[in-house]
Specification:
Elements (H helix, E strand, L loop, with lengths): L1 E6 L4 E8 L3 E9 L1 H4 L7 H22 L9 E7 L3 H18 L3 E5 H7 L12 E6 L4 E8 L2 E7 L5 H11 L6 H9 L23 H14 L4 H29 L4 E5 L6 H13 L3 E3 L3 H4 L4 H12 L23
Parallel strand pairs: 1-4, 4-5, 6-9, 9-10
Antiparallel strand pairs: 1-2, 2-3, 6-7, 7-8
The structure holds 5'-O-[(R)-(carboxyoxy)(hydroxy)phosphoryl]adenosine (KG4) and zinc ion.
Length: 337
């Protein structure tokens, strides 16, 4: 079965063809980094306009790279939320139109669940149940995942997402967008213990909070001026370490508390090398098996959408091309089985 996945929830316009929910036949991602870079963050209006310009070509490119005709598609899966409403509308409208024209099944999926499902595109697949940490620009959430569409929220950020904090602090430091990537680059060669940032929400259940940490970083810059040279590397390394330690500590607590033996870490921030290393070490020490998708499957992509779409279709779920709606604040449990 060949499923076309479409992803346009934020600033990546992506399409992919996945065979049988496992084999990525093609994956196309058009990033909008250069469009949003001058503003230090995603400008929703510019994002949706660019999706509109590119989506047809991205879809055509994914179909061509898969070596098939568009009529060879068996189904279409699309992210219908959460995300930016204007951006989501472009992807969902493209998916609805195509499904109607081809007369093939259509299925809408949740972006957060799709991030976690990226783990199923790797050689070694997780088994249910597992603990899932989605850590991205818009979300920092811990789920107990019992099966496809069967997620239980265990904890989430009460304010900023981890990626959002990284992006905002990077902007403050004069680093380019997207900030998480540049904080990581700048942190290389820095002393991670140079700046004593507070460890947020330690011991306060499984919820996260990153806004206090962000404020501490702002105050440090205000008091001492924007760091330069080695000081900048030290600052970035210390900030990165603090974010990573916070994510790792809560996740390991959740593993133990809920007695889960497997952990999946996904979303854009899961591309961070320090997070991957530290999480792997700590999960192993806690006796859990860890699954972190390859870097290109951590950041926004459509292969994860196609793979999850296939799982939903197999479970007998599909959406009407006349009714599928984009929902900017789609709850994590709105699509369940
Ligand atoms: O999943 P994603 O591509 O889009 C959302 O759904 O939000 O995540 C984007 C986030 C941004 O905040 C970006 O700064 C962060 O992921 N990110 C990273 C790295 N690569 C992307 N953060 C830390 N280290 C990285 N290597
Ligand atoms: Zn994402």
């Amino acid at each position: 079965m060949l499923v076309l996945g479409i992803e346009s929830s934020c600033d990546e316009c992506a399409a992919a063809v996945v065979q049988d929910g496992r084999l990525v036949r093609s994956t196309q991602v058009a990033t909008q980094i250069s469009i949003h870079a001058p503003y230090g963050g995603v400008v929703p209006e510019l994002a949706s306009r660019d999706h509109l310009r590119r989506i047809s070509l991205i879809i055509a490119g994914a179909v061509e790279k898969a070596g098939i005709e568009i009529s060879g598609l068996d189904a279409i899966a699309v992210t219908c939320g959460p995300g930016l409403q204007g951006s989501l509308l472009i992807g969902t409208m493209a998916a609805r139109t195509l499904a109607w024209a081809l007369g093939c099944p259509l299925v809408g999926v949740n972006h957060l669940e799709a991030h976690l499902h990226a783990a199923f595109l790797e050689q070694k697949q997780p088994q249910y149940p597992f603990l899932g940490l989605v850590v991205s620009g818009g979300h920092t959430s811990l789920f107990e995942v019992r099966g496809v569409g069967r997620l239980k929220l265990l904890g989430r950020t009460l304010d900023d997402a981890a990626g959002e904090a990284l992006d905002k602090v990077a902007k403050l430091l004069g680093l380019p967008y997207p900030g998480g990537v540049w904080i990581e680059r700048q942190a290389a060669g820095g002393n991670p213990d140079a700046v004593p940032f507070p460890r947020p929400m330690r011991g306060r259940g499984l919820d996260f909070s990153f806004s206090g940490l962000k404020t501490a970083a702002c105050q440090a810059v205000r008091n001492r001026g924007a760091p330069q040279g080695q000081d900048l590397s030290d600052f970035a390394a210390s900030f990165q370490k603090c974010v990573v330690e916070t994510l790792v500590a809560k996740t390991i607590t959740a593993l133990k508390k809920h007695r889960l033996a497997r952990l999946v870490v996904a979303g854009g921030v899961a591309a961070n090398r320090l997070l991957r290393e530290r999480m792997s070490q700590e999960a192993k020490a806690a006796g859990a098996e860890i699954f972190i998708p390859a870097l290109s499957l951590c950041t926004d992509n459509a292969a994860m959408v196609a793979a999850l779409g296939q799982a939903y279709l197999q479970a007998g779920r599909s959406s009407s091309p006349f009714e599928l709606d984009a929902d900017a604040s789609l709850p994590w449990n709105a699509i369940s089985l």
